[in-house]
Write a structure and sequence with these properties.
Elements: H1 5-16, H2 20-29, H3 31-41, H4 44-47, H5 52-72, H6 78-97, H7 105-109, H8 122-130, H9 139-153, H10 158-169, H11 174-181, H12 185-203, H13 211-221
Helix pairs in contact: 1-2, 3-5, 3-6, 5-6, 8-9, 10-12, 11-12, 12-13
C-alpha cells in the first residue's frame, strides 16, 4: 500500500538537503495511501457526510509544517510518522462530529457508503482475511465477500479491527504494527491471531476455530 522504501528514502534525503520539489513529491506519493487508511477508519455514518480526501489534505498540511522537525530527528519510518498524524486527525474528527456510538440498523446499512468501498484492492485484502488459499472468484463474489468482511470488522472491538487493518489493508509487518500500537512484537502477534479468530467466528459462526490455520496465516505474513 505504501510507496517503496527506496524511493521514500531518496526523496527524504533530497528534502533533507533543501530540495523543496522533493518534499512536495514525497508528500504527494503518500496522498492515496493516506486516503485509503483514513477511509477505512471513518465511522460509516460519518463517512456519508465527510470525504476522506478532506482529512488527507489536513494531514498533509500538518506534515508539511512539521517536516523539517521530522527530517532532523526521524524517530520512526516516514510512513508510520504520517499514519500517526492521520490517526490523531481521525480521532479529532470523530470527537467533533460523531454522536454516541450505537450499533443500529442504520449503521450496518451505511457500511457500503463508507469511503473505502471504492478502493480497488479492498475486495482482495478482504479475501485474504478469510481465504488463505486465495481461490479464484468472480467479481460479484469478491464484492459480496468484501461487504461481509466489512460488516464483520465493525462488529469487532476497535483494537481487533485496527490490528487487522494494519496487517491486511496497510500490509504492515508485525514489527511495524507493534511499533504503531506501542506493543511488543509478541503482544502484537497474539492480538492479530485473536482478532482473526474473532472475525472468523462472526463470518462462520458454526465452524470450529482452527489455531493451526491462524498460526499458518501469521507465519505467511510475518
Amino acid at each position: 500500500m505504501w510507496p517503496s522504501r527506496e524511493e521514500t528514502e531518496r526523496l527524504l534525503e533530497a528534502a533533507r538537503q533543501g530540495n523543496t520539489q522533493a518534499a512536495e513529491q514525497l508528500l504527494g506519493t503518500h496522498r492515496e495511501p493516506l486516503r485509503r487508511l483514513i477511509a477505512a477508519r471513518l465511522d460509516p455514518v460519518l463517512a456519508r457526510r465527510l470525504d476522506a480526501s478532506d482529512i488527507v489534505q489536513d494531514v498533509l498540511l500538518e506534515a508539511n509544517q512539521r517536516l523539517i522537525a521530522y527530517l532532523q530527528k526521524p524517530d520512526m519510518p516516514f510512513h508510520l510518522w504520517l499514519r500517526h498524524l492521520a490517526q490523531d486527525r481521525i480521532i479529532d474528527v470523530h470527537r467533533r462530529h460523531r454522536l454516541a456510538q450505537r450499533r443500529s440498523v442504520d449503521r450496518e446499512e451505511s457500511l457500503q457508503a463508507a469511503g473505502w468501498a471504492d478502493d480497488p484492492s479492498a475486495a482482495d485484502w478482504a479475501a485474504q482475511l478469510v481465504d488463505t488459499e486465495r481461490t479464484p472468484a468472480s467479481e460479484a463474489i469478491r464484492r459480496e465477500l468484501f461487504r461481509r468482511v466489512t460488516t464483520a470488522l465493525w462488529q469487532l472491538p476497535e483494537a481487533d479491527r485496527e490490528i487487522l487493518l494494519l496487517r491486511h489493508q496497510e500490509q504492515l509487518s508485525n514489527q511495524e504494527a507493534a511499533l504503531v500500537l506501542g506493543l511488543s512484537e509478541a503482544a502484537a502477534s497474539m492480538r492479530y491471531l485473536r482478532a482473526l479468530r474473532r472475525l472468523r467466528a462472526i463470518l462462520v459462526p458454526h465452524s470450529p476455530q482452527k489455531d493451526s490455520l491462524d498460526s499458518s496465516s501469521e507465519d505467511n505474513r510475518s
